[in-house]
Amino acid sequence: MAAGRELIRRYFRELLTSPGNLAVADEIFTGDVKFTNPVKASGVNGIDEYKAFVTTWAVGFPDRDFAIDETVLEPDDSRGAARFTITGTHGGEFMGAPPTGNPIKVIGMNLFRFREGRIYRVEAFFDPLPLWRPLGVAKRLIEG
To answer: For the segment 50-69, what is each residue's pLDDT rounded down to a tens digit?
Structure first.
């Protein structure tokens, strides 16, 4: 069980949390990693796209923190889940929204699938409104 828990810890604390280390992606993901989430409808496919997605967070929220609130793992270490809290200040452009200086707080859960000691699938579940409202884009996104 320790392997999956350590991958989850590295994912949130070393890759996503400021300052972030993109090289960690090469160590924790399979080459064919896939990521689905409420922020990018097309998803993320492969390590290079994942690094680009992480960079959008780094630019948009330079002080971001992805705290791990709880983890649960399958006994065979094939799957895991983590409840997380994202906090930060919108200090740079994020997904087309210019910086507002507003704080964010987003609570969600990720499901992880592991293969050969690496992450090959991540599915994120959270309400995107606590992210979009402080950025001033919620109404535009809701109404289309």
So the answer is: 999 999 999 999 999 999 99
Q: What are phi and psi of 75, to 5 degrees?
A: -60, -30
**pTM of the predicted model, to two decimals?**
0.92
Asked if residue 100 lies in contact with residue 136, where contact means CB atoms within 8 angstroms, the answer is yes
What is the tens place of the pLDDT at every residue in 99-125?
A: 999 999 999 999 999 999 999 999 999
Residue range of the domain that includes 13: 2-143
Residue 143 amino acid letter: E
Per the CB < 8 A criterion, the answer to whether 34 and 44 are in contact is: yes
Identify the CA nearest to 9 among candidates 54, 57, 65, 68: 68
Number of domains composing the chain: 1
| Overall size of the chain counted in residues | 144
- Looking up residue 28, the CATH number of its domain turns out to be 3.10.450.50
